[in-house]
Amino acid sequence: MNDGKRTPWVVGVSGASGTPYAAAVLRGLLAAGESVDLVVSRASRLTLLDETGISFRDAHWREDLATWLARGADGKPDTFAVDVSGVRYWAAGDLAAGPSSGSYPAKGMLVVPASTAAVAGVALGLSKDLLQRVASVTLKERRPLVVAVRETPLNGQTLKHMVALDEAGAVVLPASPAFYAGATHIQDLVDFVAGRVLDAAGVPHRLYRRWEGELGGATPRSG
Q1: pLDDT tens-digit map of 134-165
Q2: How far apart are CA 62 and CA 220, in angstroms?
Q3: Do residues 194 and 20 lie in contact, with contact meaning Cβ atoms separated by under 8 Å?
Q4: Using CA atoms, how far apart are residues 97 and 75, in angstroms rounded to an integer?
Q5: Rg (CA), the chain
Q6: Residue 64's Cα: distance from chain center in Å?
Q7: Dihedrals φ, ψ of 56, to 5°?
Q8: How far apart, in whole angstroms, are the C-alpha atoms of residue 155 and residue 149?
Q9: CB distance 44 to 12 below 8 Å
C-alpha cells in the first residue's frame, strides 16, 4: 500500500572518473518518477570540476545539480531538460543525515561511479563519510546496493574487496559500455552503463536498445 510517503533511492557519487555516468543515472531515476537522496563525496567534487568545469557547492547544490544534469556527456550545456525538485541533498560529512540510519526509509543505494577507495571503504565497513555509511546501512538492512566500479586495471586487493561486496549482497557492476546497442555518440555509451545500473535496481528506463537475439540489429540499414 502506497501511503504517499517519500521513499527515495540514495545515489552516492565518489571521486572516480565518470561523473557523466552519475548524471545519466540521476536523470534516469527522475525520468522514472523516483525520488532521490544525493550524496556527493569531497573527492568527487574535484572530479566533477575537472570533467565538467562545474563547482558543486553545498549552499548552491540545487543550481549546480541542475547545471550538471543538463550537460551532455560531450560537455555540451543545456542538452537535457531536467527537473531536480525530486532530489534531496545530504553533505558528505553529515554523519547524522537521514540515510545514515537504517530506520530512514529508502529503496536502496546506487554508488556511481565507485572509486577503489569507496569500494574498499564499503567492503571493510569503514563508514568514514556519509557515502560509505549509507552503503553499510543499505547492506545491513538488506536493501539493494549497486556499486558501479570505474577503475582499470584492477589489482588483487580491489578484486578481493569486490568479491566481499558480492558476498555481502551488493551488485558489483563495472562501468563497461557495450557496443551491440548501436552506439554512435559518447552519450550512448554512457547511457548503456547507466541503464545497466538502473536494470540492477529494477528501475524502468529507455536508455539503450536491448538485445533481442537478432544479429546486426544495431547496424544502420541502407535504403
Answers
A1: 999 999 999 999 999 999 999 999 999 999 99
A2: 40
A3: no
A4: 32
A5: 17
A6: 17
A7: -100, 115
A8: 13
A9: no
* Phi then psi dihedrals of residue 51, to 5 deg: -85, -25
Query: 103 is written with which cell numbers?
Result: 530506520
The region, left, alpha or beta by phi > 0 then psi within -120 to 50, assigned to residue 125 is left
Q: Which residue has the cell 531538460?
A: 81
Distance CA 20, CA 6 (A): 26
Is the pLDDT confidence value at 177 over 90? Answer: yes
How far apart (Å, rounded) are the C-alpha atoms in residues 37 and 24?
15
Is 80 in contact with 72 (CB distance < 8 Å)? yes
CA 196 to chain centre: 11
User: What is the reported pLDDT for 212?
Assistant: 84
Among 4-8, 26-30, 124-128, 152-156, the least confident range: 4-8
Q: How many helices (H) and strands (E) does the chain have?
A: 7, 6
Cα torsion 49, 51, 52, 53: sign: positive
Predicted structure pTM score: 0.94
